[in-house]
Amino acid sequence: MNVLLIFAHPNIDSFNRAILDTVETTLKAGHHEIITRDLYGIDFQAALSREDFTKLSPDIAREQEHIKWADALVFIYPVWWWDRPAILKGYIDRVFTYGFAFQMGPEGATGLLHHQKALVIQTLGTAEQTYDENPGAIEAVHRSMSEGTLEYCGVKNVEQLLLFGIGASTPDDRGLLLTQVATVTAKAFPGIL
């Protein structure tokens, strides 16, 4: 399976980077083909420009080719302010364009992406109990990417993995979380013989 990984964290020594490494290793072990797009590493220009409404720039055409190549998508990012980082929001704004990712008709929006599945891995700095005090918070985190973006654009099989308490986690905690990441990734993308 061709899997496109979209990674959004500025720190190359972050736990998110360790997650990316784990996902890449797991997918390669399953004999999947992967392309990784590190949005900070490629210095992706997140701001939607006026020109983006009238012509397809080469950087967006390149990203859309990667998306067309993929059978499945993986997003890895921290949750900031109950949502994705600005660079990833800008990626969605600029790359998931009208006529490419969705279109409008008499019945409303129709998604044009037909990927088999998507896996969204999100890290949260605070403990899960903090979110229990505000029941709508986790739903907001889930719905923004799964329903508001991916399902809207046609990807129906969206799995999310939320990893809580990263800010106070120990190396042992992180090791257990990376094992969970590998397990979830291998289950979502069974190996190819």
Textual characterization of the structure:
It is built from six helices and seven strands. The protein is of the alpha/beta class and 193 residues long. The chain has one domain: Rossmann fold. The strands form two sheets. It has a five-stranded parallel sheet with strand order 2-1-3-6-7, with helices on both faces. Strands 4-5 form a two-stranded antiparallel sheet. Helix 1 runs parallel beside helix 6. The longest helix has 18 residues, at 171-188. The radius of gyration is 17 Å and the shape is globular. The termini are close together. The model has no long low-confidence stretch (mean pLDDT 94).
Total number of β-strand segments?
7
CATH T-level topology:
Rossmann fold
SSE class? alpha/beta
Number of H/I helices: 6
Measured between the Cα atoms of the first and last residue, the distance is 11 Å
In short:
This protein is of the alpha/beta class. It is built from 6 helices and 7 strands. A 5-stranded parallel sheet has the order 2-1-3-6-7, with helices on both faces. Strands 4-5 form a two-stranded antiparallel ribbon.
